[in-house]
Amino acid sequence: MSDDAGLQALREAARLSPDNLPLRQHLAGQLLAKGYLAAAEAEFRAALVLAPKNPDILAGLAEVFVRQSSYGEALAALEPLLATPGYPPRLGILAARALMGEGDMGRAGYRYFEAISRDASLADAELAARLTPAIAGSPRPTPPEATTAPQPLYAAPASHPSPADSATAEVERGGLTFADVAGMETVKEALRIKLLLPIQQPDLFAAYGKRAGGGVLLYGPPGAGKTHLARAAAGELGAAFVNVGLADILDMYVGSSERNLRATFDLARRNRPCVLFFDEVDALAARRSDMRQAHTRQLVNQFLAELDGVDQSANEGVLVLAATNAPWYVDAAFRRPGRLDQPVFVPPPDGAARAAILRILLRDKPLAEMDFDAVAKVTEHFVGADLKGVVDRAVEAKLQQSISAGRAIPLTTPDLLTAAKTVRPTAVREWMATARNYVMHANDSGAWDELMPWVKGKW
User: Fold this and answer.
1) Closest CA to 100 of 125, 139, 74, 136
2) Max CA distance (Å), the chain
3) Which of 158, 182, 442 is nearest to 326 (CA)?
4) Of 111, 107, 77, 81, which is closest to residue 93 (Cα–Cα)?
5) What phi and psi, each to the nearest 5 degrees, are found at residue 109?
6) Is the pTM of this model over 0.90?
7) Is 335 helix (H, G, I), strand (E, B) or coil?
8) ∠ CA(366), CA(369), CA(370), 5° rounding?
9) 40 to each of 11, 28, 45, 164, how far by Cα in Å?
10) Any alpha helices (H) in 158-245, and if so which ranges?
């Protein structure tokens, strides 16, 4: 993107005029057209802050999600638009692709053929070929618009059996500790005080009426190590770890997502002390004011009820860690005391932390004398995931040399420096641009004051 003068000019204009909605929409559309999906997503999200219900922005964001294979998020963005009579046919094509990605071929077929019946120019032979077998041998799905009440994209026929009421997440036990997490001392200290010490020193905390348990919301740019940190917290305690993904909770049948959530909390309670980790929690705990469907609001209500527990000791010994790249989309009720009441920013690593991450990533590999600080200096704005990519590329190149030589050749500093030139940092800049919009223009409550020094930095 750095070699595209037109895009750079648009980005600079948007930076100088962050409240210019048409400019942001145009920039987002250009980024999407040229395939810069992470940057396009950030700009569409920033535009949504200015116009939360703008259909063009929602449609653009949905297209980004489809192209990123984030089909569930695409469907969530499209749902309110498709409930409007006479919606643009191109949205039906997007919905078809997203539903196909989710495996719902019947509804995908309906959306596709309904769309091209209104605009034949949108026909896609490849997509039609994949969808036609799915609907050839089954009844044509009932159009959602024909029902008496709006139906979610995930709704199943009423006669379809419900899935079993059981948790699909699994209990893990690993050896990671905070020693395996480079840097982030402030974050680790916050977790120690909030979650770990009440279990490690129960008598002292009991004297002050503090129970073992509670929740913390980890937020920050993608790839900064939130999941790694959660696993390390469990290892630090020798506790069970339950990693909850969206697929473990979200279900196409109305009411099943709530049952899955309850079963997951019950699993953690049976294995206490336990760290219960929810990744991408904004998909499960989104702002209810933004939701049109009652069943999606009910999932948020169920989540809040599980965090509270049926009595004071229900969640004792259950440490809830939640992670998100978009904390501003999480319902404010989750930040009430006793729930996820302590948002903790997981920042991108500084130079010293990047050097420490590289040491950890390379500690079990054959090495010559290494200058980790030199590599850290040329990997500014890299997060842990980016640095792992650098190491992987350096290892692949060195393996080829070792195979030719018939022996293991140690990695060197030039190997890492060469690999670093081939890896571009992920969406930290884009994430900071989005965060800047919230900090500067949507922070009346002061919830994001912690980010102020970062968004004013050189991002």
Assistant:
1) 74
2) 72
3) 442
4) 111
5) -65, -45
6) no
7) helix
8) 90
9) 11, 5, 9, 39
10) 185-191, 197-200, 202-207, 226-237
Strands 240-244 and 171-172: antiparallel
Half-sphere exposure of 265 (CA within 13 A, CB side): 21
Backbone φ and ψ for 58, nearest 5 degrees, come out as: -60, -40
Cα–Cα distance measured from residue 262 to residue 317, given in angstroms and rounded to the nearest whole number:
17
The CA distance from 303 to 321, in Å, is: 13
Structural domains of the chain in order of their starting residue, each with its CATH number: 5-146 (1.25.40.10), 171-345 (3.40.50.300), 351-421 (1.10.8.60)
Cα distance between residue 271 and residue 214, in whole Å: 16
What phi, psi does 330 have (nearest 5°)? Answer: -80, 135
Show contacts of 107-110: CB within 8 Å, 24+ apart: 107/141, 107/153, 108/134, 109/134, 109/135, 109/141, 110/135, 110/140, 110/141, 110/143
Q: Which residues pair with 275 in a beta bridge?
A: 241, 319
- How far, CA to CA in Å, does 295 sit from each of 24, 193, 253, 265, 282? 32, 36, 10, 20, 16
Distance CA 360, CA 57 (A): 42
pLDDT of the chain along its 459 residues, tens only? 555 777 788 888 888 888 888 888 888 888 888 888 888 888 888 888 888 778 888 889 889 988 888 888 888 888 878 877 778 888 889 988 888 887 778 778 878 888 887 788 888 888 888 876 544 444 444 444 433 333 343 333 333 334 344 556 788 887 788 888 887 888 888 888 877 788 778 777 777 777 666 788 999 888 888 888 888 888 888 888 999 988 888 877 777 888 899 999 999 988 888 889 998 888 888 877 666 666 677 888 888 888 887 556 678 888 899 999 888 888 888 888 878 887 888 888 888 888 988 988 888 888 888 899 999 999 988 888 889 889 999 999 988 888 888 888 899 999 999 999 888 876 787 788 888 888 887 777 777 788 888 777 655
Residue 345: count of CB within 10 angstroms of its CB: 19
Q: How do strand 343-345 and strand 274-278 relate by DSSP bridges?
A: unpaired
**What letter would DSSP give residue 310?**
S
Q: Burial code of 390-403, b = ≥16 C-beta within 10 A, e = fewer?
A: bbebbbeebeeeee
